[in-house]
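Demo today. Your pick:
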Amino acid sequence: MKKKYGSIALKMLEEILRISEGLPLIFLDRKEFHRRLSSDDFSYSKFMDRIRRLEKENFIKIGDSANGLSIEITNKGRIKCIENSKNNEVDGKWRMLSFDIPEKYRNKRNVFRRSIKKIGYKQVQKSLWVCPYIRGEEVELIEEELGINEYVAYLVVEKTDIDEYLKELFKNTTTRGRSS
């Protein structure tokens, strides 16, 4: 049941993000919103339960505005969408992350590590993570959400002495456009 909820919730988050086109708020006329939900073969109560759950888990913020209902996708919601993105655009450069997050922020460090793994980073050394995909904005968003910007270094590297090792590490992933 939880897995089914997760995929439905993710689809809802992705749709909210797509509709908002990167803008912070979506304004909907409350009456029109309810009318659309009531039409067709749609379960209004299940939908609202999912919306409330997304809000409770801090993936979205819901409020009233002068224009009606406002829904704001949070950074946490954006990160969830990013983690499940299949966009693997490459340009022949390596994205490297090095971070030294203090022990007092252990939970944030663990969340950061899980998030960067989900977006395609692989650990090369204890403090060095690498990815061939263009992910700068995504990493920045994760850093901001966790408040760890000062502990993370993001590098874009064209050539490295471990290039062959990195190519081998990512050989089973999509690397279209990667120069040899």
